[in-house]
Amino acid sequence: MQLISTQMTGYIERASWIRKMFEEGIRLKNEFGADAVFDFSLGNPDLPPPSSIKEALAELADQADQPFFLGYMPNFGYPAVRERLAEEVSKEQGVEVPAECLVITCGAAGALNSVFRAVLEPGDEILTPAPFFVEYGFYAENHSATLTTVPSKPHTFELDLEGIDAAINDKTRVVLINSPNNPTGAVYSRQELEGLAAILNKHNEKRDRPIFLLSDEPYRFLAFDGVEVPSLLDIYHYSIVCSSFSKSLSMAGERVGYALVNPAIEGKEPLLGAIVMANRILGFVNAPALAQKLLGKALGSSVDVSIYDTRRKAMAEVLDNAGFEYTMPKGAFYFFPKAPGGDDVKFCAMLQEEKILAVPGTGFGCPGYFRLAFCVGEDVIMRAKDAFVKVMNKV
User: Could you please report the per-residue DSSP string of 244-283?
Assistant: First the structure.
């Protein structure tokens, strides 16, 4: 008897490499002890939330006996939290964003899926640079769309604007970018984004439906060495931002984020209404009540970015010592080095023999590389130094 759909059977067979390695990490830690395993597989932020979260929890606990304390609210989120979020996002984006342009969602994933449901017709295409966050393909298929990829420039992972231009066709409805990028740590420059906007504007001249430029920005706060993370809102008219507080506030499990529709879009009200409706009918209904209440009190605070920068430099030292080839990440908390020998799956298996857990680039649509997440203690990174050398000596 066939209990699940053929589509889900296929999904399970090609399930996320990230989760596979995470589960392997649990097995190795149980067998050899946590200190013997160097787990760089999952982008699960280990820093505690900022003190504002603890203070907010204590304050909210005193209000928990109020009627409807955790009850339903408008599908777009608590109005007061939406207003507070608009203030913060306006500072962050450098553009005045009214509250009505925001929908509070179940993380960035909920925002992306709600936007896709609102704008995609069956058979539409979502175009994204590769490497890309592995879930994008699943999200596209959730809405009967196709994910099409364009390889980024080798090693630097800058946008291949000519390749994107050539890949756009009549079915292209969304161009999806992620900057700072998971898995590469690349940050797209203003010059790149203006070039991309020019390409999209050229294609829009021949279309009845505009191409949306959708920016997935959960790592916006995490850029190093003074690198600018440009706002799309003043670069491209038909832009939408999706983001979350999973990393900046270490609230990954609370599932709270937002979709932001560019205030400059004329007649945007139906688009916003469709995103709100999608947020409801996809089964999210609304972002979790407690997460929203925490967010309303914690906005403006953040985890200590300098800790991630220290870890980035430590990981660079470890990789340099072992002789790896890589581009220093400008943002996020990932390295994406070249896999010696070119076979990333085979090389990650070699790393695993030394109890180092990494994710093959194949899982991100970019064979020949592998991802290391440095959202782990600096002591873990430095203890892995000899293990990386041992693996390189086997190549």
Answer: ESTTTSS-GGG--EEEEE-TTSTT-HHHHHHHHHHHHHTT
Nearest 5°: phi and psi at 125? -120, 145
Whole-angstrom distance, CA of residue 159 vs CA of residue 177:
10
Residue 384, φ and ψ in degrees, nearest 5: -80, -5
Q: How many CB atoms lie within 10 A of CB 115?
A: 29
Distance CA 361, CA 358 (A): 9
Q: What span, in angstroms and rounded, lies between the C-alpha atoms of 113 and 357? A: 30
Q: Select from 1.10.3720.10, 3.20.20.380, 3.40.640.10, 3.20.20.60 the CATH code of 71-298.
A: 3.40.640.10
Domain ranges of the chain: 6-49+303-394, 71-298
- Number of Cβ within 10 Å of residue 124's Cβ equals 19
* pTM of structure: 0.94
Distance CA 43, CA 57 (A): 25
3-class SS at 44?
coil
Token pair for 350: 């070699």
The answer as to CATH 3.90.1150.10 being correct for domain 6-49+303-394 is: yes
Residue 351 φ then ψ, to 5°: -60, -40
103 within 8 A of 94, measured Cβ to Cβ: no
In this predicted model, what pLDDT tens digit does every residue of 142-185 receive, in sequence order? 999 999 999 999 999 999 999 999 999 999 999 999 999 999 99
